[in-house]
Design brief:
- By secondary structure, the protein is of the alpha+beta class.
- It folds into four domains: 101 residues, Sandwich (Immunoglobulin-like); 136 residues, Sandwich (Immunoglobulin-like), CATH 2.60.40; 124 residues, Immunoglobulin-like (Sandwich), CATH 2.60.40; 112 residues, no CATH class.
- 24% of the residues lie in helices and 39% in strands.
- Helix 4 crosses helix 5.
Length: 583
């Protein structure tokens, strides 16, 4: 073989060894399109063993199993073949196109990431009718139904919606969690606590177990065809198999199902115009009206309480009480509102009241006119008006009003005041003034000195303050500048926990890179802890910094509240501020 052939052979061997020695880290999905009621298997595979595996957040999916880890290490014809994988089983939470994010692994000091996997979630697919298939058994024995107490109501007439979870005797729900909670637009709503006990009743001609999962009372606020959004639940079921254990007990397998109550539409009727009173303000139900006072006989300048109360069954929290009209000779203060209303599956029941404080000014008898209250009775499909009795307030002592009788007093009149002779004799009518002969103060040397000294002192103070800035203020400004420079993106993403923690972790990495002037892909917590300690950062500050990074990692797998995000943000600000001082 000539030299040219030898060099070609050596080049091929070098390239081949380079290719066979490359690290491979890939993500694969069992399918790229699936129904919302199907499962997806996602596998992350590497050909070299690594550490610190970090899965993606799996947004839009629920992890029902995993990670399941498997390792394969074989020698074939003297060559070693290694494979390690992490497998997850997912169920989709919503329809649409979703990207499964990148997973990462650390191999030989370098960080490798997978490519995102695109998955399209479509409508539920038909499950094959195999009586031995656990998924088919689950679909046939699990149902979610929204039951309405009425299909046609008037505005502000109560209606109850009960979401019932039916399950057959062959299956047993082990875990139930809501995915999409219904939003009751155009309704006033209140949830009624449910005991969630298991009962039995007929459904589609078959006896089922059922649980009243959610109960809500609705008061429609406008007329028309109003949709009621469905409730979606994620249910883990124990489904029996055809196998039995050593003791003869039936073996169960677990199946995950996403079920939705179908959409329901409610017909809401407007109030009839015929016979509608002018003072009608939206009260619907059956009510009683009562107007009472704490006392009817009193002296002027004493006070009494007058109460306007409406009680009964109806939309008590959704209308205002009629106003109490009083004579002007009774000074009236703004009312104090109170309610004692209990909301059950039948609607609101109780009473509401306005309590006025009245203070009479003059003697006399003062009638409080009757109060009129109108409401719509949906059972009778007609309007009804209640009228209270007239209340008379008798003021027995006090000044008398002039120019009108007390019983017809509608305006405040002057109070009769007895004449007082020589009432102003104590005022001196002759003055004994003396001329001022002393030197004028304005224009004197003392005048100008007192005028200029405060200005001079103020100028000296401002000059000294400018030259010696407040150390605490400067430290605060520096702290705010650091936070804005490195943590600004994280603060803007506090509405989304995933984006917030990704931005927070990246900001901490960028800060260390900028301050230590390094460029490396190896940013494990151990590596950063060693670098910061080497640069003279104290152990307490390093521990604070590492704690924030650890919280960022945990937040990928556990839900985070707004308060925990604010706490982690404040800790990050404190950590980089302390490190900046020590650097």
């Amino acid at each position: 073989m000539n030299k040219k052939g030898i060099w070609c052979l050596l080049l091929v061997l070098a390239v081949s060894s380079r290719l066979f020695g490359q690290v491979s880290f890939e993500a694969t999905a069992s399918k790229n399109e699936l129904g919302i009621n199907e499962r997806l298997r996602v596998e992350f595979t590497m050909n070299t063993d690594g550490d610190n595996f970090k899965p993606p957040s799996f947004d839009g999916f629920r992890v029902v199993a995993g990670p399941n880890q498997s390792v394969s290490n074989m020698f074939i014809n003297g060559k070693r073949s290694f494979s390690k994988s992490y497998t997850y089983f997912l169920t989709p939470l919503k329809k649409g196109t979703t990207n499964i994010g990148q997973a990462s692994i650390e191999i030989d000091g370098n960080v490798y990431k997978t490519s995102p996997v695109k998955v399209v979630v479509k409508d539920a697919v038909a499950i094959p009718k195999n009586p031995n298939d656990p998924n088919y058994i689950a679909s046939e024995n699990l149902h979610l139904v929204a039951e309405l107490s009425k299909n046609n109501v008037y505005i502000n007439e109560p209606i109850t919606v009960v979401y019932k979870l039916y399950f057959g005797g062959k299956v047993r729900p082990s875990d139930v969690s809501p995915i999409d909670m219904p939003e009751y637009k155009d309704f006033w709503s209140q949830d009624i606590p449910s005991r969630r006990t298991i009962d039995r009743e007929m459904y589609k001609g078959k006896l089922y177990n059922f649980v009243a999962w959610q109960q809500t009372v609705l008061y429609p606020q406008r007329a028309g065809k109003l949709p009621i959004a469905p409730l979606t639940l994620d249910v883990q079921l124990d489904v029996p198999t055809n196998r039995r254990d050593f003791f003869g007990n039936e073996i169960y397998t677990q199946v995950a199902r996403t079920i939705t109550a179908g959409k329901r539409t409610l017909t809401v009727l407007p109030f009839p115009e015929e016979g509608k009173p002018n003072n009608f303000n939206g009260a619907v139900g059956t009510f009683d009206l009562e107007v009472k006072t704490s006392k009817n006989v009193l002296n002027a300048s004493e006070s009494l309480q007058a109460t306007v109360q409406v009680k009964g069954k109806g939309n008590l929290k959704l209308f205002s009480l009629p106003e109490l009209v009083t004579p002007s000779a009774l000074e009236r203060y703004d009312p104090e509102y109170k309610e004692q209303v209990n909301t059950t599956l039948g609607g609101m029941r109780g009473n509401i009241q306005d309590t006025y404080t009245l203070v009479p000014q003059f003697q006399g008898k003062y009638p409080i006119p009757p109060v009129r209250f109108s409401y719509f009775d949906p059972s009778a499909k007609s309007y009804k008006t209640l009228t209270s009795k007239e209340v008379v307030i008798d003021v027995i002592e006090g000044p008398k009003s002039i120019g009108t009788t007390a019983s017809n007093a509608t305006t405040i009149n002057a109070v009769e005041v007895p004449a007082i002779s020589n009432a102003f004799q104590f005022i001196a009518q002759r003055a004994n003034f003396k001329p001022i002969t002393a030197q004028l103060f304005i224009g004197s040397l003392l005048f100008y000195a007192l005028l200029l000294i405060p200005i001079l002192l103020l100028s000296i103070y401002l000059l000294l303050r400018k030259r010696t800035p407040d150390a605490a203020l400067m430290a605060q400004r520096h702290k705010a500048k650091l936070a804005k420079k490195y943590l600004g993106k994280a603060k803007r993403n506090m509405s989304d926990a995933t984006d917030f923690y990704v931005a927070l972790e990246g900001a901490l990495h960028n800060y260390v890179k900028a301050r230590l002037h390094i460029q490396t892909a190896d940013f494990s917590k151990e590596k950063m802890e060693a670098l910061l300690t080497e640069k003279g950062v104290d152990k307490q500050t390093v521990a604070l910094f590492i704690q924030v990074l650890t919280n960022c990692e945990f937040a990928r797998y556990t839900p985070s509240s707004r308060s925990s995000m604010e706490q982690d943000y404040a800790t990050a600000v404190e950590a980089i501020t302390q490190m900046d001082k020590q650097f």
